[in-house]
Every structure is written in C-alpha cells, then in structure tokens.
Design brief:
2 copies of one chain form a homodimer. By secondary structure, chain A is α/β, with parallel strands linked by helices. Chain A folds into 2 domains: 156 residues, 3-Layer(aba) Sandwich (Alpha/beta knot); 59 residues, Orthogonal Bundle (Helicase, Ruva Protein, domain 3), CATH 1.10.8. Chain A has 10 helices and 7 strands. Chain A has a 7-stranded parallel beta sheet with strand order 3-2-1-6-4-7-5. In chain A, strand 1, helix 1 and strand 2 form a beta-alpha-beta unit. Chains A and B meet through helix 1, strand 5 and helix 7 of A and helix 1, strand 5 and helix 7 of B.
Amino acid sequence: MFSIILSHPQMGENIGAAARAMLNFGLTDLRLVAPRDGWPNERAIANAAGALEIMPPVRIFDSTVEAVADLHCVLATTSRTRDMVKPVFNPESAVEELHQRLTQDQKIGVLFGGERAGLLNDEIALCHGIISIPTNPDFASLNLAQSVLLLGYEWIKTQGTLTACDDNNPPPAPLEDKEAFFQRLETELDATHFFRSEGSEAIMKRNVRNIFSRADLTQGELNILHGIISALRGNKKKPGTK
Amino acid sequence: MFSIILSHPQMGENIGAAARAMLNFGLTDLRLVAPRDGWPNERAIANAAGALEIMPPVRIFDSTVEAVADLHCVLATTSRTRDMVKPVFNPESAVEELHQRLTQDQKIGVLFGGERAGLLNDEIALCHGIISIPTNPDFASLNLAQSVLLLGYEWIKTQGTLTACDDNNPPPAPLEDKEAFFQRLETELDATHFFRSEGSEAIMKRNVRNIFSRADLTQGELNILHGIISALRGNKKKPGTK
C-alpha cells in the first residue's frame, strides 16, 4: 500500500484536489493529520471531482506519529534539507525507492506539510528520506495538490502504463508501394517539365523522395496522394468510364 | 522558446493555476485562444500566486491557427488518438522531442484544450503529434492546470535541475573511525556479559555492526553514539577530570 499523508492541511480545496490527483494515478489511501477545518469538508468534496466517493474513507489522525505508525518507510516532501542527515530524492528516484520497498511487502507513504508552514523538523525526523521537487528557484512554491500530483504521476510511470491511449496508428505502407508512388510522381512531373536540367534533376528527385519518406506514409495516405496527383493533372476519370 | 497554448479555457482559476505551474518550472510564454471570460481575468490573477505579474504579458488570439503560427512544432494533449495518424508521446518522450527541437532553434509549444470539450480535431490536425498523459483508466480526467504542471515538470527535468535543494549531507565518517566505535561498543558489551556464548557472539557482533554500517554514520553521529555509550555505562567524565 502507498499512502499519502497530509499533515495539518488548511484549505479543503487543496485536500480535494489532492484526492483527485491521487485517484488520477491510482492512489487511494489518504490520511490527514489535524485538518484545520475538520472533516468531512464540503470544499474538499467539491474539488475532488468525485474521487472521495470512490476512494476508501479518508482517515483522520491527531498526530503525524500516529498517522505513519503502521508504515515501514515514509519520505517527506520539503524544499529544504534543514541540516538533517537524510537521503535526498527527487520524485523519480523517490518512487523507485518506494517501489522497491513495496515489492518487499513494505507499507510505504509520502508525507506533505500544510500550505503555510510545511513540515516540522520533528515530522521530518520520522522519515527515511526527503523528496525535493525540482522547481524554478525564483518561483519555487508548489501548491499542495500539485506536489501530490507529481508524486502520483511518477508512481503511475513505474506501473507500466506510459500512455493513456494506445499508439494504434496504422502501419506505414510497404516500400514497394511508396516506390510506385514516387515513380508515378516523377513521371507526372517529367511530363510537366518540372525537372529542368539533368544536373539538378537527381537532386530534386531525391529531395522529393525525402519529403515523403520522412512522413511515414500509410497505405491510405498513399491513395490520397495518388488522388491528388490525378486531380492536379486533370486526368480524373468519371465514374463508370475507363 | 517553449510556449503553452490554452485553447478556449473556461475557468479563470485554471488559467491562473496553469500560469503558476508554468513559472514553477521556468516556462513563461502563455497564449490563450478565446478565453471564455475574457482577459484580464481576476480569478486567474488570484490563482496565479503572483506568477502573472512576473511573466511576460499573456497573449490572446482569436483562433488556434493564429496562436501557433510562429511555432515550428506543437504537440497536442489529448486522451484519445481520434484515429488521426500522429506520433503518440507520453509527457517524458514529448519533452525529449521538444528539447531536441529547441536545440535546433525551433520554437516549440504544447496545446491544451478547454476544460469541457478538449481540443477539436481541426486543432489537433495542426500539431506534429499527440501527448497522452498516463492516468488511472477508471478516473482519467486531469484538471487543465495539472496537465500543464506535468509537462512543465518533465521540462525542468531536462534542464539539469533534478532536486530543488542540494544533497549537502556531510560525508560518512572514515571506516577506521567506525571500526574504533565498533570495537569500543564490543568492549563495553563484553564487560556487561552481553555476549553469552562463543557461538552466538560472532553472529551477534556481526549483526550489531550491520545495524550501524547501514546507517552511513557521519563523524558527528559517531561522536553522539560514543556519548550515548558513555552515558549508558555511567562512566561520564566530569569536565576537567581525566
């Protein structure tokens, strides 16, 4: 299990957006330590876009120590190392570490501080390491839910799902069909005196081939191009004629 | 230049949060196509956490064609391939592609659709490829600003900044100092008859060493541990005595 622990979160909007981000990436165990406005929270529900109804009930704790008690490894998100001797991870390496531990049946979690004050040093001292999210040093403050999102996003990348939709593009046409198209195009261009001199003709032909080669044309697209040439050359056939 | 283009965005909150996310990751060129509530937008400003004041002015366009006119390569974010023959990227591979083009002095951009309807097929047809963000298939809908955030995050990862804070942990102590600590610990434990039998003593000593070896102890921490042993053994020396 991969738990997300929000310590002393203030705004319900952020709790809701964090829940939505969690479920977007398949995370469902949300724990709150002393949320400022209590729980349940209407603004959280409104901002979760339905996620809180799908996820198991959020658990509320009085202290961070209690919230992480059953976990084997917790990493703390913070933008400062605070002179504590801890391994420092970025989101990607953090998720690698956590994933490795999960395969050893460890219960893992990531701890996030409240919007204003972040985490206390005593809370960070509970954690195995620190996660530092790379940001623009001149504008570094990430929204709480955004930080949760980035961890969730890195997490789903370890789960083998790298795009939401399959790359179900049709395959490119076989080279012989492309060659037939090139030859027809060249023949038609020759007929229009497109190629002026022998010297430039070879280069021009190569350039034309390169344009269409790069495009990784499918069979359907080749048919369209044949149709275009026919149309441009004005030798469209009426239906039923030969 | 790396541009973010939001086509027909609806909620000012999302535009503002997108601007904040952009600046968090060092992106500053935001273009809006026909924002529903006009521009400037108070809710956008409120949600940008100051980003809009730092970034160059947002540019507004009537159509997506105009908004991307000066760019060399635009990728479209969408969760469906829509039966168009396009390369499909995930955020990571998209950013690799864009980064490569930027090094060739191309102007690059990512196009995002509005909250409700996403992008029109005609808008996607303008783009070189599609970016599909991996999400939980049962809860796939990402907030607009969150999608912008993920692209910005992948972008900053290509800029060589992998953690916001340096790993400035002190180095571990040299092995001779650790060895001295182990030997003192073993001597003290021997004196308390901690090691019962010869058979188990070697294993026990190895286990104790492993505990402390794994911790990658620094010089300062070794000093603390020496102090703890002294304290526990009751042989603290008063200042000035030998």
